[in-house]
Amino acid sequence: MFTRLAALSLSLVLFVGCNNTSLPSSGGDHAAIHVNQSDFDAVVLNSQQPVLVDFWATWCGPCQQMGPVVEEVAAEFKGRAVVVKVDTDENKDLAQKYHITGIPAFVFFKNGEEVDRLIGSGTTKQQFAEKLNSLIQGS
Q1: Is 63 one of the catalytic residues?
Q2: What is the pTM of this model?
Q3: What are phi and psi of 2, to 5 degrees?
Q4: How far apart are CA 53 and CA 119, in angstroms?
Q5: Model confidence pLDDT, tens digit, residues 68-86
Q6: Candidate list 35, 53, 60, 86, residue with the active-site label
Q7: Could you give the angle at the alpha carbon of 128 between the alpha carbons of 127 and 130, nearest 5°?
Q8: Pairing of strands 51-56, 82-87
Q9: What is the dihedral of CA 123, 61, 42, 126, to 10 degrees?
Q10: Residue 57 burial (C-beta neighbours within 10 Å; 0-12, 13-18, 19+)
Q11: H or E segment and range at residue 18
Q12: What is 24-137's CATH topology?
């Protein structure tokens, strides 16, 4: 009985997590900016501030877990760094260009160049903050 109940609960959690239809879009109350192939260069490569790019997908559970952390970082660094999200399903060319082979992948840019990256849902808010602060201070 317990195993069936646990399995049912897990299935429900996975279903809800993977079918999140209330994902943020450009604008709104979200601090992270959603970009695509057409505006990536203008927003990321031409930024005067350091940029954190979150490569993610709607079906990716670990990406969904990291979403709130990325939004917190975006809010805390607003005005000092830019935080963007790139949906890898909708922007396959960008994912390929930056050799994204697993998601979530977090790529840091400064002056239009990739300078660092972190991979996986184990990435902490503190790790994001340390890398961004380092890039800001190195300006």
Answers
A1: yes
A2: 0.78
A3: -60, -40
A4: 12
A5: 999 999 999 999 999 999 9
A6: 60
A7: 65
A8: parallel
A9: -20
A10: middle
A11: helix 2-18
A12: Glutaredoxin (3.40.30)
- The pLDDT assigned to 91 comes to 97
Amino acid identity at 33: I
Task: Give residues with Cβ within 8 angstroms of 37, minimum separation 6.
Answer: 91, 93, 94
Active-site annotation holder among 33, 53, 63, 135: 63
Whole-number Å distance between alpha carbons of 31 and 36: 16
Helix, strand or coil, per DSSP, at residue 83? strand
Active site residue 18: no
The answer to whether 73 touches 130, Cβ cutoff 8 Å, is no
Please give the helix or strand (H or E) that residue 93 lies within, else none.
Answer: helix 92-97
Q: How many CB atoms lie within 10 A of CB 60?
A: 21
